[in-house]
């Protein structure tokens, strides 16, 4: 019972923290203030990873991913661990952050901008241009819906230990607007 209560408290805290972020992401996909500051925390990357893993373990359709790059800054950077949900392709909506495999074999997590006949146009928050590739049924993996921020990125030995056990999402910059804080 205590385990379920702690998991519930963690999920409530997560959903409360993400409420403001999700409302901003769901607004007009063509406008966004990229000058927002990065979230501040004193949590280590390893603790953020452990917390995200505990939450993901409560649902079979959730996976943990680590990030590289700044294309979705300030919402997530290499200092973050994401929760990714395996969602039905038909349930995608403008404003969600879709995770897909690009032609280079990299996993990308960018915002869904527009539904077109062959898939979804995506764009990172820091990019002025849309991604050159569509998110479609074949390359779609899920949506990023939870962010666990850390004070810094992972240590090299942590990366070596987790690389086979968590997804790795790579930042893709197309005509980047660099506003890193």
TrEMBL record:
Identification of the protein by name: S24/S26 family peptidase
Source species of the chain: Rubellicoccus peritrichatus
Task: Report keywords, A-Z.
Answer: Signal
Q: Which residues form the signal peptide?
A: 1-26
């Amino acid at each position: 019972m205590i385990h379920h209560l702690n998991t519930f408290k963690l999920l409530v805290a997560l959903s409360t923290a993400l409420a403001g972020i999700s409302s901003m992401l769901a607004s007009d996909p063509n406008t966004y203030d990229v000058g927002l500051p990065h979230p501040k925390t004193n949590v280590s990357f390893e603790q953020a990873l452990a917390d995200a893993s505990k939450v993901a373990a409560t649902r079979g359709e959730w996976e943990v991913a680590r990030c590289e790059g700044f294309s979705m800054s300030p919402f997530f950077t290499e200092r973050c661990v994401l929760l990714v949900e395996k969602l039905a392709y038909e349930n995608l909506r403008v404003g969600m952050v879709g995770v897909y495999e690009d032609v280079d074999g990299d996993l990308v997590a960018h915002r869904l901008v527009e539904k077109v006949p062959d898939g979804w146009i995506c764009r990172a928050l820091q990019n002025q241009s849309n991604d050159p590739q569509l998110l479609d049924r074949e390359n779609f993996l899920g949506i990023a819906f939870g962010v666990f921020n850390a004070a810094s990125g992972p240590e090299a030995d942590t990366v070596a230990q987790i690389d086979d056990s968590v997804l790795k999402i790579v930042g893709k910059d197309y005509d980047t607007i660099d506003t890193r804080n």
